[in-house]
Amino acid sequence: MEKIRMTTPLVEMDGDEMTRILWQMIKDELLLPYIDLKTEYYDLGLKHRNETDDQVTLDSAEATKKYGVAVKCATITPNAARVKEYDLKEMWKSPNGTIRAALDGTVFRAPILIKGIMPYVHNWSKPITIARHAYGDVYKNVEIKVPGAGRAELVFTGADGREIRETIHEFAGPGIIQGIHNTDQSIASFAKACFNYALDTKQDLWFATKDTISKKYDHNFKDIFQEIYDTQYKEKFESAGIEYFYTLIDDAVARVIRSEGGFIWACKNYDGDVMSDMVATAYGDLSMMTSVLVSPSGVYEYEAAHGTVQRHYYKYLKGEETSTNSIATIFAWTGALRKRGELDGIAELTAFADKLERACVKTVEDGRMTKSLSLISTCENPVILNSLEFIQAIRATFDAL
Ligand code: NAP
Ligand code: MG
């Protein structure tokens, strides 16, 4: 069989631990036999990040801007224990944070739905994609523990020296205050990434804040979204047959639970932090969550939502059998290959991605799965496979499709 040809390389960001092992297995078993795979390879494994003083992470982000599509393996975010384990020169920053900052991107997370793994919310028959604004608010706050009686004020001093001053509270005794901020530019980038992704995936976009209570702060989010929608996206949405829907956050939560899914839910930073864990858990399992970083200029980086599965890796190093679920990492590859196919007009590549995803789903639905999936599946005698056997089972399903 002739291999599918590619014209533009994917930016390939290799990673750490168990997912690095799966990465190679996926390439060997599921990609290289079928595709004349073109990638520009960046080794984001912690050892190499340390050797390059993390330059490799910045280089991979620049390459993503250049080529437009990247696929990333999970990577270690170093903490004190990792500094010791890898004898690091520094506690390097999270690669995801670095790449997100370089691309000014928004992360979209969606579950992979499979028959036999029922969402806890039974009417969710389609995936709900969460988009979390990843800048500001309470994550960049300034706080004061008020020691006793006194006045708390909010003061803005303009570059021109002009002052705006508001009293927050006249304290009669001890208390707390918090200062948070956001920027119009960051909110606008977030809005554009959301509108673009909605158009790209032909799904409705929901957005919610608490603008009735926060009449300036939250209202500003609402206004920026509405203004960008009206001036740049309204017609495109109408011709794509999709909707932009704004409501209050508490109303949104109630509607999400009653819905059948199938839309994108854009969340402010804190709402996204809370709701993405709620939605992920309700759909079943972290190992079945996909993740894509989208920049406002339309650059895409695909990855799995889970980490490097450290516990399994230590078993693997001891020569013990592992049963690690590779589906989310495979979907990172298929997401990137499909996008490359769309951008370069290579229909075979897009069709390959669709077929490989169907093969993953069918393998599990036919009762062959990893240990963690068997624990949440309603399938009656599931065959539990090890990490490599599972990938080989997907290949067998793929070949038979
Ligand atoms: P994790 O890798 O997501 O794994 C946590 C646990 O979830 C695992 O121990 C395993 O449970 C289960 N799990 C996750 N993915 C699985 C899969 N594909 N198949 C089967 N089980 C799976 O999180 P972590 O162990 O807390 O973090 C490990 C490293 O990953 C950390 O260094 C962290 O910095 C990094 N991390 C990276 C990213 C990223 O690059 N996007 C995201 C998160 C974390 P059992 O052990 O019970 O089987
Ligand atoms: Mg969180």
Explain how this protein is built.
With 401 residues, the chain is an alpha/beta fold. It folds into 3 domains: 1-111 and 306-401, Isopropylmalate Dehydrogenase (3-Layer(aba) Sandwich); 119-141 and 182-283, Isopropylmalate Dehydrogenase, CATH 3.40.718.10; 142-179, no CATH class. Helix content is 45%, strand content 22%. It has helices spanning 17-31, 46-51, 55-67, 80-85, 95-103, 184-201, 217-240, 249-258, 269-283, 310-317, 327-344, 347-365, 371-376, 387-400; strands at 4-5, 10-14, 35-36, 39-43, 69-72, 106-111, 128-132, 142-146, 150-157, 163-171, 175-179, 204-209, 244-248, 263-267, 289-294, 300-304, 368-369, 383-384. The longest helix has 24 residues, at 217-240. The structure holds NADP nicotinamide-adenine-dinucleotide phosphate (NAP) and magnesium ion. Magnesium ion (MG) is lined by residues 273, 277.
